[in-house]
């Protein structure tokens, strides 16, 4: 904990690190003053008495991961997670900024409720934060009041569009209205409800209520995803809305997206999530309910296709869809087990594991977890290791492999789909706005992140 005592000086010098940034890896030093990166150079000297000096020899310095899709469950569902506990897990996992979904209690469907969530973020969040405005059939006027510069976007993720069922992708007439009027970024969950219902009844007739968990990928099928995604993309393209497609789970969907030359020029973007990259339907036999997500984890071919789409530029970023439930809420049969699980503490280690396996370069890791997220959302002064930018930084080491154990989990729900998994990269230090909030397994719980800000034009 001695590191945290030094932080009142507000000057930090990271020495001898391998800087992973903007397509290259260079060796050098990084000086942080107050919240921002002041200098990047081959060698920087500062008086020891006034500076916290961290010798990072052998370690890589990356921009902190920006996770654009989390469910921190606060307010209203804090028995399973809250902003404080999950932001602790986030910084321990190298996530320095996040964007939270509106399916809390109450749902974030008014500007007043949105502002209340921002107050919670300021009080409780160790990482930087933003909160999406929720959209349903009754609140379009409220949605249109959303401020582009201080709110990340609008979404239906986790919400029912029509009170008790359905997501927005199933209501094309309303999509036409929304996309024709909104000026902020719209991010949507895309599955076809009618196909899912049809598949559910098919397997309920076969198995009753005891449907095996491996049938989740057949119920929430490729057809359900592709059908809805085609529908939404057609409307978004017609209106040229800034549209972001959440948690793409099939290679077929990824191939519907354009590669594009420059990320800032793309009006339509998409993401893959950690669980769709790290698991496939062969894992249901062992993990069952613990990898039950919506959209479902699908085939090995889909898993490989998503990774290829990331490398090719059809998919742009990697997120988590961190959606914790208690262990009790995951138990029961297929219909009783809730979909979703905790991921932020193991998101960046998972992506770095893909690098260890030779599937992603380190510059690609930085691009897909930080650079491109900042560009898609038009974030102000974040997502890169640049002089003048906020110092949201992560030091990682590949010198000592480690295992995910219950004793090193920080999630309030107390479990992980990665329990027992070996990772080869370890997060050793995390900086949020220049403050060292995590060092060698210990967190400074006194620090608070900042509200993320965005460019006016999306």
Structure description:
The chain is α/β, with parallel strands linked by helices. It contains 15 helices and 20 strands. The strands form four sheets. Strands 1, 2, 3, 4, 5, 15, 18, 19 and 20 form a nine-stranded mixed β-sheet that branches. Helix 5 runs parallel beside helix 8. It is globular and about 70 Å long. The relative contact order is 0.18. The model has no long low-confidence stretch (mean pLDDT 96).
Outline the secondary-structure elements.
Layout (H helix, E strand, L loop, with lengths): L1 H5 L4 E11 L2 E10 L2 E6 L10 E4 L4 E4 L1 E6 L12 H10 L2 E6 L10 H14 L3 E4 L1 E2 L5 H4 L10 E2 L16 H10 L4 E3 L4 H15 L8 H4 L2 H18 L3 E3 L5 H4 L13 E6 H5 L5 H4 L12 H13 L4 E3 L7 H4 L16 H10 L5 H15 L16 E5 L4 E2 L18 E2 L2 E7 L2 E5 L2 E2 L15
Parallel strand pairs: 1-4, 1-5, 6-7, 7-8, 9-10, 10-11, 11-12, 12-13, 13-14
Antiparallel strand pairs: 1-2, 2-3, 5-15, 15-18, 16-17, 18-19, 19-20
Helix pairs in contact: 5-8
Span of the ends, CA to CA: 42 Å
> What Rg do the Cα atoms give?
21 Å
Sheet with most strands: 9 strands, mixed
CATH architecture of the largest domain: Alpha-Beta Barrel
Q: How many strand segments?
A: 20
**CATH topology-level fold name of the largest domain:** TIM Barrel
Q: What count of domains describes the coordinates? A: 2
CATH class of the largest domain: Alpha Beta
> Roughly what percent helix?
25-40%
Content of β-strand: 15-25%
- Can you identify the CATH superfamily of the largest domain? Metal-dependent hydrolases
Mean pLDDT: 96
Provide the structure class.
Answer: alpha/beta
Broad shape: globular
Query: Which ranges are low-confidence, i.e. pLDDT below 50, for 5 or more consecutive residues?
Result: none
Per DSSP, the total helix count is 15
């Amino acid at each position: 904990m001695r590191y945290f005592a030094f932080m009142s000086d507000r000057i930090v010098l990271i020495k001898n690190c391998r800087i992973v940034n903007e397509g290259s890896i260079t060796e050098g030093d990084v000086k942080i003053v107050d919240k921002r990166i002041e200098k990047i150079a081959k060698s920087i000297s500062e008086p020891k008495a006034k500076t916290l000096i961290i010798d990072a020899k052998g370690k890589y310095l990356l921009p902190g991961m920006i996770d654009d899709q989390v469910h921190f469950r606060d307010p209203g569902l804090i028995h399973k997670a809250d902003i404080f506990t999950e932001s602790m897990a986030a910084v321990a996992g190298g996530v320095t900024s996040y964007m939270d979904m509106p399916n809390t209690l109450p749902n974030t469907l008014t500007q007043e409720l949105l502002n209340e969530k921002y107050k919670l973020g300021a009080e409780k969040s160790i990482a930087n934060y933003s909160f999406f405005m929720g959209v349903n059939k009754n609140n379009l006027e409220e949605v249109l009041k959303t401020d582009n510069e201080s709110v990340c976007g609008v979404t239906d993720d986790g919400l029912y569009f029509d009170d008790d069922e359905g997501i927005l992708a199933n209501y094309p007439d309303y999509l036409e209205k929304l996309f024709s009027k909104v000026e902020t970024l719209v991010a949507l969950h895309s599955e076809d409800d009618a196909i899912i219902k049809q598949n559910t009844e098919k397997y309920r007739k076969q198995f009753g209520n005891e449907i095996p968990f491996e049938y989740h990928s057949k119920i929430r099928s490729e057809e359900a995803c592709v059908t809805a995604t085609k529908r939404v993309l057609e409307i978004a393209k017609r209106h040229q809305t800034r549209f972001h497609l959440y948690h793409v789970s099939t290679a077929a969907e990824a191939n519907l997206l354009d590669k594009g030359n420059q990320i800032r020029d793309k009006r339509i973007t998409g993401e893959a999530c950690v669980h769709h990259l790290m698991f496939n339907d062969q894992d249901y036999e062992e993990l069952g309910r613990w990898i039950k997500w919506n959209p479902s984890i699908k085939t090995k071919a889909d898993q490989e296709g998503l990774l290829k789409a990331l490398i090719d530029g059809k998919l742009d970023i990697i997120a988590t869809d961190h959606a914790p439930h208690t262990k009790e809420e995951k138990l029961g049969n297929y219909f009783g087990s809730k979909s979703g699980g905790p991921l932020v503490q193991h998101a960046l280690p998972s992506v770095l594991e893909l690098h260890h396996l030779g599937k992603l370069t380190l510059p690609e890791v930085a691009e897909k977890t930080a650079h491109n997220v900042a560009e898609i959302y038009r974030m102000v002064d974040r997502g890169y290791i640049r002089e003048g930018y906020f110092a949201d930084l992560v030091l990682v080491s590949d010198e000592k492999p480690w295992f995910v154990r219950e004793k090193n989990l920080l999630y309030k729900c107390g479990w992980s789909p990665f329990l027992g998994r070996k990772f080869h990269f370890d997060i050793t230090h995390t900086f949020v706005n220049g403050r060292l909030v995590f060092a060698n397994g210990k967190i400074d719980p006194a620090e608070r992140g900042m509200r993320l800000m965005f460019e006016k034009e999306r």
